[in-house]
Amino acid sequence: MFDVPGEGARDHMTTVVVLHAVRALMRADSRAEAAAVLHTAVRRLGGEVVPEREAGIAALPWEISLGLGPACLAVPVQGQESARRLRAELPPLLEDAEISAARADRYLRQAARARTDALTGLAGRGEVDLRLEDAAAEDVVCLLDLDDFKTLNDTRGHAAGDAALKRFGELLRAGVRDFDLVGRYGGDEFLVIFTSVPAPVAVARMEDIVLQWSTKGPGGVSVGLAVVDLRGPRLALAAADRALYRAKAAGGACVKQAGRDDFVPPR
Questions:
Q1: Are 240 and 128 in contact (CB under 8 A)?
Q2: Is residue 188 among the annotated active site residues?
């Protein structure tokens, strides 16, 4: 994948620099990391990385920012020998860096898709499970389920159901802080993790969501919530699920907080 130019005319230092850069580019995890490797190689070959507008006539004609920040060029600063090395080695190194950056971009896009629910743009189930494991004591776990969602799908079609899920996701995201987790847990079920929020505040926030959805959405939404304690977030999730069941049994469109009897280890 990465080409190493012929080494016949190279000195030992140049060979070491190029091989080190090629190996580092193969391991680069981001476009910024690939650019950093390229710029380090430029300096080790006797050049400086200079903004294009300040480069002057000594600059080599290859733009090496990799699309990050202002355009920049390599300028030899150690005489004719550094200019010769950079002219010989920079083009293939730049090509390798661009390939590395593009590969890293693809990986990051794939990782983002894996973490994000495609329909709502909220955190997907995998990301929700990871964040749930990190929930600490005094965080609040909320499970939300759209009431009569199956009826909506059956009577108005899946397109109407998808539109409702997207609208509810937008409402939910707008209704909590940026650093609180909002995810689609599956189907028409959503999960919110409030970080270090008193239970009454979380209840009030969820009651406001329920009220807003009752006026903006097709149907209502039921919520069960539980405070994470020293027994861990998984037990709190199970307790929130039991509270959600009680909210549904009460007719929906309401919030129920888990009590002591809800904190029962799953069988």
A1: no
A2: yes
Cβ–Cβ under 8 Å, residues 262 and 244? no
Q: What percent of the chain has pLDDT over 70?
A: 94
Beta strands in 187-252 (DSSP E): 189-194, 221-227
Secondary structure (3-state) at 99 = helix
* Per-residue pLDDT at 111: 66
Q: Which of 96, 139, 145, 188 is catalytic?
A: 188
Question: Cα angle vertex 137, ends 136, 143, to 5°?
Answer: 75
Q: What is the dihedral of CA 128, 129, 131, 132, to 10 degrees?
A: 110
- The answer to whether the predicted template modeling score (pTM) of the entire model surpasses 0.85 is no
The candidate with the shortest Cα–Cα distance to 238, out of 201, 209, 210, 267, is 267
Read off the tokens for 41. Answer: 């190689």
Q: Name the nearest CA neighbour of 242 among 219, 221, 224.
A: 224
Q: Which whole number is the average pLDDT over 189-199?
A: 95
Beta bridge partners of 164: none
Token look-up 């907080």 returns 257
Q: Where are the domains of the chain?
A: 12-112, 125-262
**What is the spatial distance between Cα 48 and Cα 44, in angstroms, rounded to a whole number?**
9
Nearest-angstrom CA–CA distance, 165 and 159? 10
* Cα R_g (the chain), whole angstroms: 28
pLDDT in tens, 167-179: 999 999 999 998 9
CATH for 125-262 (3.50.50.60, 3.30.70.270, 1.20.1440.230, 3.40.50.12780)? 3.30.70.270
pLDDT at residue 253 above 70? Answer: yes
